[in-house]
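Pipeline run #58 for the internal structure catalog. This entry was flagged by the ingest filter as a single-chain record with no existing model, so it goes straight to prediction. Upstream metadata was stripped on purpose; only the residue string is passed forward. Reviewer on rotation: M.T. Logging verbosity set to normal.
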Amino acid sequence: MQTVVLAAGVGTRMWPLTDARPKPMLPVAGKPLVAHTVDAAVEAGATELVLVVGYEADDVRSFFGDEYAGVSVEYAVQEEQLGTADAVRSALEVLEGGPFAVLNGDALYDVPSLSDLYEGGPAVGSFEVNDPTSYGVLETDESGNVTGVVEKPSDPPSNLINAGAYVFPEEAHEWLFDVEASERGELELTDVLSRACESYEVQPVAFDRWLDVGRPWELLEANEWKLEEIEERVDGEVSEDAELNGPVVVEEGAVVRSGVVIDGPALVQSGASVGPNAYVRGATVVGPNAKVGHAVEVKNSILMNGATVGHLSYVGDSVLGREVNFGAGTKVANLRHDGETVTLTVKERRVDTGRRKLGVIVGDGVKTGINSSLNAGVVLSPEATVMPGESVTRDR
């Protein structure tokens, strides 16, 4: 199955993590988010990959090259972000004739369901949610076939949402040129789906597991999912008196020092160091060349390339960008005293994350002074600084 993977977006809802890299290349369990999408596609039966790139395209190209997991890779460039239909239309020049699949490069799909989608085209992936009002909701007829999509309806026709996975017939090559701009000024791929529904019986293929990774806390959810799948492996240097419990991976070139306890699932990547006397737990990734210092506790967090957490610090349910440096004694709060869920700023608006525990989202190059404290739900812009002893309760 020819498979188009959409990976051109800037990812403004993920800011500040996407300040200098595309959202699909954010790390999840040790590799880019979009790599998990592509892995699932290949395992499900993709025979050719077309990656649509745009923002920071070289990052995507350098990772995947011309072949990935034994499958050839082509690239199409979306010059302007004009919508999903425009993105797929840019891929037509490298697509051969015949049916093709389209996947969002910032979503995770379970492989068995994706295999069913590939075998059942024309089809659209669906996922059942309790509250579909924030999604594109699938309309179906009495036979269960899809008849259309309603975007963010106040009165949803069903609780089946569009999972951003499609198999289109060959005629869709022509339909893509008939799409007109929507009310929000974009060329929507759902218009092509509507055309398919007019000519074919389009099946809603239910995904057993699916995650749209559009906002920073969803990056933590993606990490939690994919770390469930790791198998214990120790290739790096681990002190004799360190304790590794559950599925823990220590890559070659990583160091786990004396007195460290790691309760998996956890991944310590090449060049990283942990300890001495540190505690790492939950779904945590200590990224390449990252450092967790003496008597530090890190829980359910992502430390990206080169991030350092100085001694006597605590980081919980947080994402730290590249080359972040937390001074000694930096403490992250990840729980509200009133028991309410944590809110976070997304595109200049405070949004309920639905998470009872969430710490901080920290852009690249941030530095905190010693004995500083960061409140739950704080977002720190790239290169921001925190003074020694400062308590940060608002974004900066």
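catalog note: The radius of gyration is 22 Å.
catalog note: The CA atoms of residues 25 and 32 lie 5 Å apart.
status: ready for reviewer M.T.
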